[in-house]
Amino acid sequence: MNTVPCLKVDGLNVTYPVGRGLLHAVVDVSLEIGPGETLGLVGESGSGKSTTGLAVLRLIDIASGTVRLGNDDVAGANRSELRTLRKRMQMVFQDPYSSLNPSMTVAQLLEEPLIIHADLPKSERRSMVGRILESVGLHAGYAARYPHEFSGGQRQRIAIARAMILAPELVVLDEPVSALDVSTQSQILALLKTIQAESGSAFLLVAHDLAVVRLMSPRVAVMYLGEIVETGPSARVYDEPAHPYTAALISAVPFPDPARQRRADRIILGGDLPSPMNPPSGCRFRTRCPFAMEICSQEAPPKVAVEGGGVASCHLHAHGPKLDGGSLRPFLREKRVAMVE
Amino acid sequence: MAEPLLELRDLTVQFPSPNGWLTVVDKVSFSVGRNDIVCVVGESGSGKSVTMQAAVGLVQPKGGRVTGGSVRFDGKELVGMSNRDLNRVRGDEIGFIFQEPMSSLNPAYTVGEQIAEVVRRHRGASRADAWKRAVEMLDRVHIASAASRAREYPHQFSGGMRQRVMIAMAVACDPKLLIADEPSTALDVTIQARILELLRELQRESGMSVLFITHDLGVVADIARRVVVMYGAQVVESASADELFARPRHPYTAGLLAAMPQVALERGQDPVAIPGTVAQAHAWPGGCRFNPRCVYRQEGACTTVPVPLEPVAPGQDALVRCALAASLSDTLREAVAA
């Protein structure tokens, strides 16, 4: 690639002091998003996916690693540099009920970023508010109302309008639809696609739902206990996962068809997420992996290039069945696993 | 036919609002047979949770009132039953699991003490026997080293483990009916899969009936034998799970399916959103409550008079509340076919 990526993260680490120890929430995460592109970041609670999103925007402290927005250093930026950078990167949170100040009107909420970051006359700000409201599918006349007068889906539209009004280069979307009713989720997903096509912003989409991510982003990274365990084109990762955690995550989501649920080969993970204060040796996933081998506790897994694109960090590619960058599916069929703890 | 274990008939519930009483459960009727698993599915504001709470006398403490209908449980009428009698039924004959296990457990007592307390209160068991039962129950919900974990406090358990503790507590007295309100919604999907597996296993072993409330049609397909779909405080469709997913009869059910990302992926297209927003109790639309969002809506038939819940065909168990059901039958079937 000779174009400069919109976002480039290298060796990102985030730690929290806990008691006398250090909680390693994000471990050596590297990722890249091109201009106007969407990358999905998938994982369950405790995977570090949201922490990664916050760290990229410097909304929390970074322990080490580099974060670049275009040609500019985010990780090393000082306070005034950050202020300039913030104009170019925004965030949409999961809960539209708590992310909008209830005492501000929609007009005030949307105007605030313009007042802080752009030197514009009031009339220009007002017309921008009207335009952005229409672009998220809300009447310009709603500007005088308060957040509580709107449904969850409408509030999320307001939050998106607020994030997009400065035409940012990068938007971190943290579970943007998971708090919404199913019937309205896809309205918001469609809106995000349209608005991205217009603005050319890059999206980092943080979500627990691989299906949502596959619909929204051509590439995905799967996180477990602070680490990226698999990356690749979303279709390949979803259809032919190369890491057992990815396969388990996909199989755990019930499909709305009882006949199919009855015959589904599900990988049921035993145990609980280990404490990030004291992560397992070798592969971090091995304590819950139904296919763990001796080597998994001894050595960190190699990063293996996967057929069809991407990388998986798993010993199964070099040991045991020696998948050698292939899909896990044939191996799973062979095992016919339906492991119950 | 044997009498169902639980039978709701025309149950109606109201809650106060600044503009007077709002009907949030409107003449809801359905039943749960013995050894049955029934899912009530709906979105926010559908009335699914309030229906369940009202059925067992839990809306009055929250300011609501049951204004009509009946709830028969195992030969007893629960509407109008004294709190004292209701307390005996709840926890003994009917067990509960809620969405947020942390707020239902007391942080000041060990999990063993909390399960034992339920057994002592409802069964009059001795301390020693109740403790033994608590350990046995923790073991039954697959908590490893149950005897020692029983001495630990809720905060020492993960979210999934706490939900197992809640389940152990709910089934400790061998209830005839287990009511589970979104028990897996706050959990990660890999943990959810195990909780659903556990509920299926406990149901199979004990033969208890399960009334499961959820917003997730995937979960419904995974666990339900029969399904009740609610929208706008009413039942809009009910059928066996196999029938409902193969042949949804209500445009709302078909719409919910088409809106699911997994279903869309399977068909290689974008998910189809249901337009508009979920109907609200302060402004139920006239006629069919789903009509403002329905792509098949017809002026008149759908917009003027209330639509009754009727068998999909004479003599059938499946019910639907749609004025156009007969003519839409094939359209909807094709709409959800992969």
Describe this structure in words.
The complex is a heterodimer of chains A (341) and B (338). With 341 residues, chain A is α/β, with parallel strands linked by helices. Chain A is built from twelve helices and twelve strands. The longest helix of chain A is centred in the middle third of the chain and has 18 residues, at 182-199. The model of chain A has no long low-confidence stretch (mean pLDDT 92). Chain B is α/β, with parallel strands linked by helices and 338 residues long. In chain B, the strands form two sheets. In chain B, strands 6-7-8-3-9-10-12-11 form an eight-stranded mixed β-sheet, with helices on both faces. In chain B, strands 2-1-4-5 form a four-stranded antiparallel β-sheet. In chain B, a hairpin with a 2-residue loop joins strand 9 (226-231) and strand 10 (234-240). The longest helix of chain B has 18 residues, at 189-206. Chains A and B meet through helix 5, helix 6, helix 7, helix 9 and helix 10 of A and helix 7, helix 8, helix 9, helix 10 and helix 11 of B.
Layout of helices and strands:
The complex is a heterodimer of chains A (341) and B (338).
Chain A: E1 7-18, E2 21-33, E3 38-42, H1 49-56, E4 64-69, E5 72-73, H2 79-86, E6 89-92, H3 106-117, H4 122-135, H5 152-164, E7 170-174, H6 182-199, E8 202-207, H7 210-216, E9 219-224, E10 227-233, H8 234-239, H9 244-252, H10 258-263, H11 294-298, E11 303-305, E12 311-313, H12 329-335
Helix pairs in contact in A: 3-4, 3-5, 5-6
Chain B: E1 6-17, E2 20-32, E3 37-41, H1 48-55, E4 65-73, E5 76-77, H2 83-89, E6 94-97, H3 101-104, H4 111-123, H5 127-140, H6 146-149, H7 159-171, E7 177-181, H8 189-206, E8 209-214, H9 217-223, E9 226-231, E10 234-240, H10 241-246, H11 251-259, H12 261-267, E11 310-311, E12 319-320, H13 325-336
Parallel strand pairs in B: 3-8, 3-9, 6-7, 7-8
Antiparallel strand pairs in B: 1-2, 1-4, 4-5, 9-10, 10-12, 11-12
Helix pairs in contact in B: 4-5, 5-7, 7-8, 11-13
